[in-house]
Amino acid sequence: MRHGQTQFNALGKIQGVCDSPLTSKGIADAKRVGQYFKDNQIEFDHAYSSTQERASNTLELVTNQPYQRLKGLKEWNFGVFEGENQRLNPKYDSKIGSVGDAFVPYGGDSADAVQARMVRVLTDIMNRKDNQKILIVGHGASIYLFLKNWIPLKEIVKHVEMKNCSVLKFEFENNEFKYLKTINVVN
């Protein structure tokens, strides 16, 4: 699940490792997702979030169950671009489906490094004992890069809309994830 809307989301600011609080919309949307889970009797064996407040706060609004915060689930580090207007983002390369290494010279992460981290951490989580139905709250760019590891870019562009508080459903078998669908409870 992607975290709820933050002040930086609403203001069009680049938000990776920097953090900003959830807006009233972000709080209300997270509560609506929690109600959706209750109404549909969806329960989780375990829950995890990024160490960033916007993700852990979202998770706490969705469920009261205990959870673990993991650094490996954090968002992409955008270096000196953090907190700046999104218009300053490097140019997206449609051939590779990201900006690649564009943030590296500015103190940020490469897309490949974030993708590898996310695949490793999520695979490790799913291989833990008793982890069958898991809720993980994270961030848009890192979730996108994780997703890009498992399905072709053209399918992501056509079929995956990942707004704040979107829930992406996967199956996991033989150390591979299969994307099933995105659940958008909120507008």
From TrEMBL:
GO molecular function: phosphatase activity
Gene Ontology CC: one annotated term: cytoplasm
Domain of life of the native organism: Bacteria
Annotated active site: 3 (tele-phosphohistidine intermediate), 75 (proton donor/acceptor)
Pfam annotation, one family: His_Phos_1
Binding site for substrate: 2-9, 54
PANTHER family to which the protein is assigned, alphabetical: BROAD-SPECIFICITY PHOSPHATASE YOR283W-RELATED, HISTIDINE PHOSPHATASE FAMILY PROTEIN
Protein's recorded name: Pgm5 protein
